[in-house]
Amino acid sequence: MNLPISPSEPRLTSLSHGGGCGCKIAPGVLSEILKNVPQLPFPKELLIGIETSDDAAVYQINDSQAIVATTDFFMPIVDDPFDFGKIAATNAISDIYAMGGTPLFALALVGMPVKVLSNKTIARILEGGSEACRSAGIPIAGGHTIDSVEPIYGLVAIGIVDPQRIKSNASAKAGDVLILGKPLGVGILSAALKKDVLGPEGYAEMIANTTKLNSAGPDLAKLSGVHALTDVTGFGLAGHMLELARGSHCTAHIDWSQVPLLSNVLQFAEDGVVTGASGRNWESYGHDVAIPSNFSAAQLALLTDPQTSGGLLVSCSPESVKEVLEIFNQHHFIGARVIGQMSKSQEKPLVIS
Questions:
Q1: 201 by DSSP, 3-state: which?
Q2: Most buried of the four, 8, 17, 226, 311, by CB within 10 Å?
Q3: DSSP string spanning 36-93?
């Protein structure tokens, strides 16, 4: 699993300064960059733009249809080229599902060091992306390629949604229950892989988690009791929970004991196997998070751990919890858990207990 496709080629992860969604610019830095960038007035048809850092843009084309558009790409999180391509494509498609939409097609974004990697390796990356799209039932209809220093792969994903079923990350309500669809810890497992301390079972769990499409999104969007939906990616659970809480003008309360974790990630974190992105995330938004006095450094690393192709985060009415969990189960998300609730706005938008 750690070997390149050819003994003469370097490991994919050795060519990138950061892998997966851990490559994302920290939220505080991103806000600083964007704050003075001028924006044209949005047309009324643009139902969701950049205002709340939502998962995708949504543009209404008629009374019953709106286009969902997103893009996501990153550098290798694993060394197997097929796995890298499949993870990157799954991650990109997830933003369509997170809006309650159904994907239609994708365009590939490809940057590769063509003098360093063989054509065979690059082709395997694209094959992995194509496999993820095949699983989602969509074609890769085109794309763009460049010769770059670091390997980069991802998709532009286009989907469709009924405007009445759009699930923003800014429409949660006080009293809602919070449900997470996938366990945390992908960033820590990727750090363990890079340090050559991740065994075959851990790698298999990591791949299974990151290549599982968040296909429950459209079915969740059909429930009137589901008020808000997002996915947990590079800013970690805390970062994406903050986006949901701020956008909804509420405070999110997380019961840490109920948060699902991938196998052995807490032990890895306690051993210091963590990502640099988790620390950058905390520096960006830690002032808005209330944590217990006995919250350990390892737990904090997991709270801020960048998730690549992470799970859906649902904010729903208490009466809808059973239906939401049933939908997750129907889509084989057996690890989905209730992890907290929303309240009226308090001093901090995120409280961990």
A1: helix
A2: 311
A3: T---PPPPTTEEE-TTTT-SSEEEE-SSS-EEEEEEEEE--SSS-HHHHHHHHHHHHH
pLDDT at residue 52 in the model: 76
Which segments of the chain does DSSP mark as H helices, in order? 27-34, 81-98, 119-136, 186-194, 200-210, 217-221, 236-248, 265-270, 276-285, 297-303, 321-330
129 and 93 in contact (C-beta within 8 Å)? no
Per-residue confidence (pLDDT) for residue 24, from 0 to 100 = 61
Residue 281, strand partner residues: none
Q: At what angle do helices 276-285 and 27-34 cross, to 10 degrees?
A: 60
Q: Which two tokens stand for residue 84?
A: 């890298």
Which residues are annotated as catalytic? 21
Name the percent of the chain lying above pLDDT 90: 85
Give the model confidence (pLDDT) of 215-255 as tens digits: 999 999 999 999 999 999 999 999 999 999 999 999 999 99
Predicted local distance difference test score (pLDDT) of residue 155? 98
pLDDT digits (tens, 9 = 90+) for 9-50: 898 988 887 665 556 666 667 667 667 777 767 889 999 988
Q: How far apart are CA 140 and CA 133, in angstroms?
A: 7
Domain annotation for the chain: domains and CATH numbers: 12-164 (3.30.1330.10), 168-352 (3.90.650.10)
What are the Cα distances from residue 294, in Å, to 250, 297, 346?
A: 25, 9, 22
What span, in angstroms and rounded, lies between the C-alpha atoms of 313 and 236?
12
